[in-house]
Write a structure and sequence with these properties.
By secondary structure, this protein is of the alpha+beta class. Helix content is 36%, strand content 33%. It is built from 7 helices and 18 strands. A hairpin with a 6-residue loop joins β8 and β9. The protein is elongated and about 85 Å long. 20% of the residues are buried.
Length: 321
């Protein structure tokens, strides 16, 4: 490959070979990187003065004035011809370089989806760490450009944002935007849920609504719940809830009705409760995500007695007394 790069920059490839080579550069990231390195190297070499530059310059200078005295009109049109040729060469070189660099620096949009009962962690281009909960989708660019860093979320994610005062980090969820500079916060915005919840652990967060043009600023240990266009700020009641990013589902004095809703979201399973009394149970406990919904319900069943019927074909769990 080094030999091919040398031939390219040495002008030893014909038009067909050059076109084929440039196509390979577009498709091969490693080759593109090597091409850039050679491009920089040859650019630096072009800046180095050759030993005969001064002598040739003196000779051409003298030749220019001697020709000018002999044939001024011919020389004038000759200079225009050479200037036009040089201009075309420069513009062609700039166009090729711009096309290659534009492709190399192009921003790709990536999407990461986490299936039911799983979680994922990734580090974005700017150093921001994102944990994604089950059945969540994050759309993000391969690299951030411009005056802000934008991603979009469906589901739930915990963000540890790399600080950058000149480029705020923005998370788009439904019709809301969560804007920060550098902080730790959690966003819950599942499509099936009738609310969006943003919880701030460190730093500062601004949550704004496109529909209502309202916005709120959170301080650490505060969360905002947006429902039916209303924004309500509360203190965070359960910090252990965010253990989900470590694979732990934690519940503290929580109604079984709310636990069921979360289990349905996390494991993409429908849970049917035949006896309303079951929904009023209050439970405190921690579960490993990897244990699965069947084991979680079985453990709760030991304290609050109910029967479990599982329809695996239709992915439905029925709870009854």
């Amino acid at each position: 490959m080094d030999e091919l790069l040398h031939k390219y920059w040495g002008g030893k490839l014909n038009a067909k070979e050059r076109a084929s080579f440039l196509l390979r550069i577009k498709e091969d990231a490693l080759l593109r990187q090597q091409f850039t390195q050679y491009q920089n190297l040859y650019a630096l070499l072009d800046l180095l003065p050759a030993p005969n530059d001064y002598i040739q310059g003196q000779e051409q200078y003298a030749h220019y004035f001697s020709e000018k005295k002999k044939k001024p009109h011919t020389l004038f049109f000759g200079l225009i011809k050479y200037a036009a040729a040089i201009l075309i060469l420069v513009l062609s070189t700039c166009w090729i370089t711009f096309t290659i660099c534009e492709h190399r620096l192009s921003v790709e949009t990536n999407t990461l989806y986490v299936p039911p009962g799983q979680r994922a962690c990734l580090t974005l281009h700017d150093g921001t760490t994102v944990w994604l909960n089950a059945r969540s989708r994050l759309t993000y660019p391969s690299r951030f450009t411009g005056d802000k860093r934008e991603v979009s979320l469906v589901g739930e994610a915990f963000f540890d944002v790399a600080k950058n005062a000149s480029s705020p980090f923005c998370v788009s969820v439904k019709d809301l935007t969560v804007k920060v500079l550098g902080t730790e916060f959690n966003v819950l915005a599942y499509p099936e849920s009738d609310y969006i919840q943003t919880s701030l652990l460190n730093g500062s967060v601004e949550v704004s609504s496109e529909k209502t043009n309202r916005k709120v600023c959170l301080s650490p240990d505060q969360e905002v719940i947006v429902r039916n266009g209303q924004m309500n700020v509360f203190p965070i009641k359960q910090h252990t809830y965010f253990l989900w990013k470590d694979g732990i589902y934690s519940f503290e004095q929580e109604k079984f009705e709310n636990i069921i809703k979360k289990l349905e979201l996390y494991y993409d399973t429908r849970i049917v409760v035949k006896n309303p009394e079951i929904l009023t149970y209050v439970y405190t406990g921690k579960f490993r995500q990897q244990d699965g919904i069947d084991e979680i319900l079985r453990l709760i069943q030991k304290i609050h007695h109910f029967k479990i019927d599982r329809d695996r074909e239709n992915n439905i769990i029925t709870l009854r007394k």
